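Hi there,

I know you've been waiting on this one. I reran it after we fixed the sequence typo, so this is the corrected version. Both the input and the resulting structure follow.
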Amino acid sequence: MRALRPQALEEKDLCEALEGLIRKMTAGTTVRAEFILQGTPRKLPPEWDENLLRIGQEVLTNALRHAHASHFAARLVFDRQGIRMELRDNGRGFDPERKHDGFGLLGMRERVEGMGGEITIQSASGAGTAIFIGLPHADSLHQAECSQSH
């Protein structure tokens, strides 16, 4: 199982891995990319780190490959309510209600739901895309699971 963990997370925390991924994927492109960290990062379960990194990678890949964006921003927020990740691009957008080829949106939804979180996708043709992910604190989710199992 450990072999499946992204190499970036073996050597770095989520913030460093996500920032490095964005820098690496946009190097040599015309896309201006930024990573913003708000709050004090907390240690997350390894599968949460992996899920958030893979979601960031999927969204950035879509922004580069399909949206033809010139700007991409990722914001990771740690606060009292939990963890939020916001991913935005100024590309050509799409209709999130329409069926799409591939596993991207469905896979993201499943990953977020598996962490007990919520995902919101805002996009419209010609208006870019914004993806908002809200997760509870991992320790409060674990406590809730423990109290339900008794």
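Quick highlight: The chain has a mean pLDDT of 86.

Best,
R. S.
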